Amino acid sequence: MILTKQAELALRTGRMDETICDVYGCTDGSDQLAEYRSRLLHVIDGFCETFGQPNGIELFSAPGRTELGGNHTDHQRGNVLEASVNLDIVSCAAPNDSMIVRIQSEGYPLDEVDLTDLTPHPEETNRTAALIRGVAAAAHKYGFEIKGFDAYMTSNVLSGSGLSSSAAYETMIGVIMNRFFCDSKLSAIDIAKIGQYAENIYFGKPCGLMDQMASSVGGIVAIDFEKEENLKVCQVSYDMKASEHALCIIDTGGDHAELTSDYAAIPREMGEVAGAFGKTVLSEVEEADFLKAIPSLRRQYGDRAVLRAMHFYSENRRAVEEKEALQKGNFERFRQLVRRSGRSSAMYLQNVYAGMNPEKQDMSIALALAENILGDRGAVRVHGGGFAGTIQAFVPNDMLTYFKTTMESVLGKDMCHVLTIRPAGGVVLMS
Fold first, then answer.
1. How many domains, the chain?
2. 60 beta partners
3. Domain CATH code at residue 281
4. Same domain assignment for residues 324 and 426
5. How does pLDDT run across 239-266, given as a tens digit for each residue?
6. Where residue 14 sits, what CATH number does that domain have?
7. Whole-angstrom Cα distance, residue 91 to residue 150?
8. Strand intervals (E) in 262-413
């Protein structure tokens, strides 16, 4: 723990600069560094205004994430390639010597959760209080006594962007509890699993583990979901700056409302194809057996289910090949694979627009526009679940200004977000 004044002095005099640069991947003296310092000073002020002057505080960060490869492969226990990004939740927190967690997320009502009761509360479904209680309950299952704390948080993780603000929030709660009450004994993978448990059992969302793993572990992360009880997690050492390409996430302006059935249809149809072989997921079915059975599968489940299964097999291989390309420093190979991923999602997975509203194709327009601008350079693909929301582009640095300006001339101001991949996942920034 550190006194508030000492924390502020360390930030203002640059004594935290090296740590900040290590976490966010920025350089000393950059405009970004000044922004990160300012945000941390802001959460300290917010904490003191909300909870009063504490005996000591600590500062924390938990990042959003981006999907680099493996579009809709995780729920079939396949391979994915993820990365943490420089947009994050930052928090100032301190234990409060009670069993009450009080969290003030900037712009939202104060959450208060009594940890003397760690059972799921139905009235908290789809609320942040459920995530707080769920993370505490999961940590308790690991054998730790979780107590109360106060925290002030602010987030710049774009909501509805596919950057997974919920996973960042779960990671943040897990990192704080791990620091204060678990002697920092929980690993990043433990914290990811705890976050998934909270979201599944308490929040009421049957998500996989992909988003939480990227946020908690950090950097570029390759995950093999073949064995859920023993995941293969590999951090990939590659500095995206060396590619001379910028990572852009483009908000297409589409509305996610009423799309639950479209999202649910993808794992359902892939599962139906797997079921024809007596299996639960496609990763358990040999591709050669699937290809031989296509005529009967078309008759039984329809062409779309078969095409989506075809996407899985090729995309699952691509996620591994993308990892290997980056490990070898071969960005050109990675770029070509990203392009193929984008085509496969559009043509075979078919998650670029909703079938119930085919005249509304925000994502298809954004993809077509981006491809038109980039020509033979860069790469563009669907980002995340699809149907609405965001696309991802890797844009050559010398085209970035033109790309961003042209995309926003069609989609609207501030719809193209230029991000960087940060090296660190959920961390204690200052203690």
1. 2
2. 91, 428
3. 3.30.70.890
4. no
5. 999 999 999 999 988 665 566 777 888 9
6. 3.30.230.10
7. 10
8. 379-382, 390-396
